[in-house]
What does this fold into?
Amino acid sequence: METTKYLSPAWGAIAKAKLLAELDPAKMNGASASMSNVYEGCADGKDRYLFLECSDGALARFEVGEGEAPEAEFRIHGSYDTFASITRGELGSQKALMLGKLRLKGNMAKALRLASLADRVNKVLAGIPTEY
Amino acid sequence: MPYDLTPASPYWIDNRARVRQLQAAMAANGLDVYLASRPRTMSFIMDAFCPWRSYLVVPAKGDPAFFTFVIDATRVADETWLPEDRVRAYAPMGGQDQASAISSFVLEELGLAKGRIGYEDGMSTWTPEGYLSHYEYEAFRAALPGFEFVNSHELVDAMSVIKDAGTIARFREASRQVDEGHRAVREAISGGGWKGLTETVIGGIAALAMRRAGSVSEWNFAGLNEISSGRRSALGACTPPTTKPLAAGEPLMVDLHSMHRLALGDHSHNYLIGPATKAQRRHADNFVDLVSTVLGAWKAGSTPSGLAEVMFSRAEALGCSDFVVPGCEHGIGLFGDEWRIGSAADSPIPYWTDPDHAYAEGEMVICAMQYASPGDGLGFRYENPIVIGAGGVEALSKYPLGIEEV
It folds into this structure.
């Protein structure tokens, strides 16, 4: 199976197309929120980000890139290895937060209501054949 | 229940005005942020029931932000007047523990890198007062290294001494609920109905009646109503009920606690379960006399020490001074504000009642008097929220003062 480099521009394009195709706005509870995942210490020493914004339950913006992440309502910081483990389905995002491997910034009360939606996004991304 | 008050409601409290008043006090004291941790401050500012460990961060301008344990945040958001996005949560997750969540708010959302933070430290007689713990203090200091921490609880305490009309109306309603509890207890124990009942059952009978009347909680630190009978009534002030059955020839102390919109009903009524001895009757009549005397003497300008003199002088005249427990009152306010009289922490014994505190018009306390004769296995307690006026006091529970024989 052909794989794509995790967080590369090509991976980002596949991820965006897959999210648009598979995320059903009707099942996203009409959520409007934005999130930046900040990947610290990637293999080349750089930091990368995954930015996602939903408006009324629909994916409005999706980006991956290097350097400073876009401003977002929620920022989740963690190591590349931690995020890769989550995307591979080896580590639950909730457990990663409880272990302190991920650090969430933003309104926790709202984040809790969005947790199941974040899980749906992760499941879609986990379906991309990826080279980590 | 969802926050539903408008200025037309008798229970309306202008919470935004309270925030502005606190912010003015902060400015006068050079504070950039006020970090509250006591339930009394949450009740006073949030106007919502906040039983979990919570924090309120009051900036120099604008709405405060509230942080509570994640499982209760949505309910508090529903019940408070604060905008939903100002009700936050902390959780055992990376970046979301108490110090991390609150320091992020201060540093990033308020945009402050340094300044002075008022916090709440002190000493209390009831355990859940909510002063910042030493561990919390050290954690916040480490998370906010650019800030000077200043103990400032007296700012909120000073604001909450004189009660506004909405607060007093809430206390009146809470007292009406307590009176319903007393009526239910009296009905249950009358005509020999006390036989087979225990102290805990008496507490439950009262609780059900008060809940049916609208009370949401038996709020006090005993976690319930305080009921004692027999020799336990002579043992002291705190009397959580036990499974002891009521018995003929014993006293019964019924101290009920309701809660209405965070205002606290707190009224104690006493019985003698017949047949009463002449000595018991004499003690009972003495106690009723003492309560009437003290209530009659109370008015704006009275002091705790002055009222104690009134009480002991009358007790000497009645020949019962050996049985009078010192003190006539404890403080009261919205949920969490239960003990200290006034607001000053610089009384002769810090954090205890200043004996020379002069009560002001519009101040509320619980008239709290206790009588104990361990030798006779007998004790009584009277409590009632009172509003202090220029010429006297209004006792909010209207349940008739007396010690009945049932």
About this structure: Chain B touches chain A through 19 residues (CB under 8 Å). DSSP finds ten helices and 15 strands in chain B.
